[in-house]
Amino acid sequence: MPWDVLVFYLLAAVCVLAAGGVVVATNPVHSAIFLVLCFFNVAAVFVMLGAEFLAAVQIIVYTGAILVLVLFVLMLVDPDDLPEFHAARPVQRAVGVLLGAILLLEVGAAILNRTVVGQQGNATPANVAAVGGNVQALGRNLYTQYLLPFEIVSLVLLVGVVGAIVLALPERLGERVGQRRATISLGHPRGTDVAALPPGLDGPDGETPVRVASGDRPVATGSGRREATSELEATRELIMVRDADERTVVGGGRDSGRS
Amino acid sequence: MADQPLWLTFLVAFVFMNALLIGMAYMTYFERKVLAAMQDRMGPTRTGPKGLLQPIADGIKLLGKEDLIPAAADKWVFFFAPLVVFVTAIVRVAVIPFGGTVEIFGRQVNLFAADLNVGALFLLAFGSLGVYGIILGAYASANRFSLLGGLRAAAQVVSYEIVLGLSLVGVFLLSQSLSVRQILLQQQADLQLGPLSLPNWFILSQPLAFVIFLIAGIAETNRAPFDLPEAETELVSGFHTEYSAFRFSFYFLGEYINMIVLSLFAATLFLGGTDGPGADRYWGLGLVWLVLKLLFFLFFYVWLRATLPRFRYDQLMGIAWKVLLPLVLVNIMVTAFIRLVGNGQL
């Protein structure tokens, strides 16, 4: 067996095993590590196919950026808070197995029919070498033949970026706080839906928003500026901390908003 | 570029990597001496003449220390995280050319381990993989300080990686290649500015990109003033708080090797690498020029550390996204425009 075939099977085996590990691992961080391994091996397969540029981009974009951000989020989440990782949900499982089986059948049928091997394109090694390598060949194709789809994809990505910025903007934080210098505490309730907390149950100090009865709100930080508060705006409480000793709640839920 | 047997390539790579390790050891000595001089101290003096054996003594000391593993640690991840930093750092030296082809013992030997056609991207890719060692080590330590350090490292590296990559696009546009060796060869030509004949180093045609690359590179290697992931005063020592003995030293090795590789990279891409007076006649002189340029960058690193206070975290992110990124995009557009005009296509 030639060496490159042997190396390919080694890479493919590690890749498939790692992909299995992503699903099997109970710790989400371990899943992410397996995914890194899988992506890395896919990049190596790209190198074997002579697509060095794709390999480098695969590592830079997927492994180096996207998965880092995934890990970033996973590290902040307690795995015990993710019921999907533990509890058996029969309906979900059944649907998952069914869809997986269908996918397996499809892929298997395609491989057996040899329809995976499509028409040979014109990107033969000789043609690629003629334009100066696979970076040049890819660039030429993307920016001439596929210019319109390429630009549309970048537009879609731009929409995604704008959407992320809109979502990340604090709920009109600037308007409510005005010019006052204030720090948002680590107990920022974004992501902790107030309504989801059982009434009367407060988390550890500073972790979850404290419900404040409308009457006895402490030092009304910026409350003078809250006349214009609409109902839509104030659905979550925001903890403002100026120093370690003081904690005031600005902009309560709907009930406290009408005080 | 001579065709050479695979074992010779491996031998060359082996020599380079070991040279890098020794260089790293003496980088710590260099840093301590320079810092000491800047702070009016002596620095290491006791071990060997002028303290020259200090790095070796440090290495032996680290080997002899007890290797502690926190009870709550995620053991396997804790084991391999430091190795990720070390391996991804040292493997990057493979694409850096230390010269052309020379004849040693009657054999044609390439003074570079690999001439990838995406060499520059290879360097960037492995630079971005290094952050996994930091994040995973921080996570596996089961320590809040470490976790905070790891989170900072993740956000910082992802942001500065974009700037670092984009700052090179101008160079790629001018050299029309992603291969580090091709970029180096391009710079050995002369740049004619009227009566003035200058070396075609890309620092002259891409000064803005050079400055931005340097800043982003310092942030990417987590060095002062961007060393927030390991800020001692706030985070004990950040992501490696729980690491001890040789496992700790892998982080240390990784950081210093990253500095050296990045300096070599900057010297090769912007300062003409091995290019210099007389370098085309004697290949040894080319190496000397490269080492001199390397020393300049390393001195610059230490100088910054001795001079500047640490940034605040929001300032750090603000610089990347609000200052450097727009600048680098403007640089790309201007370069592309000039390139088109120069080609007569506009």
UniProtKB/TrEMBL annotation, chain B:
GO terms for cellular component: plasma membrane
The keyword Oxidoreductase is annotated on this UniProt entry: yes
Protein name: NADH-quinone oxidoreductase subunit H
Documented EC number(s): 7.1.1.-
Higher taxonomy: Bacteria, Pseudomonadati, Thermomicrobiota, Thermomicrobia, Thermomicrobiales
Source organism per UniProt: uncultured Thermomicrobiales bacterium
Keywords assigned by UniProt, alphabetized: Cell membrane, Membrane, NAD, Oxidoreductase, Quinone, Translocase, Transmembrane, Transmembrane helix, Ubiquinone
Ranges in coiled-coil conformation: none
Keyword Lipid biosynthesis in record: no
Similarity-based family: Belongs to the complex I subunit 1 family.
A Gene Ontology molecular function term of the record: quinone binding
Reactions mediated catalytically: a quinone + NADH + 5 H(+)(in) = a quinol + NAD(+) + 4 H(+)(out)
Subunit structure: NDH-1 is composed of 14 different subunits. Subunits NuoA, H, J, K, L, M, N constitute the membrane sector of the complex.
BP GO annotations: aerobic respiration
Top EC class, one word: translocase
Gene encoding the protein: nuoH
Function: NDH-1 shuttles electrons from NADH, via FMN and iron-sulfur (Fe-S) centers, to quinones in the respiratory chain. The immediate electron acceptor for the enzyme in this species is believed to be ubiquinone. Couples the redox reaction to proton translocation (for every two electrons transferred, four hydrogen ions are translocated across the cytoplasmic membrane), and thus conserves the redox energy in a proton gradient. This subunit may bind ubiquinone.
Pfam families hit by this protein: NADHdh
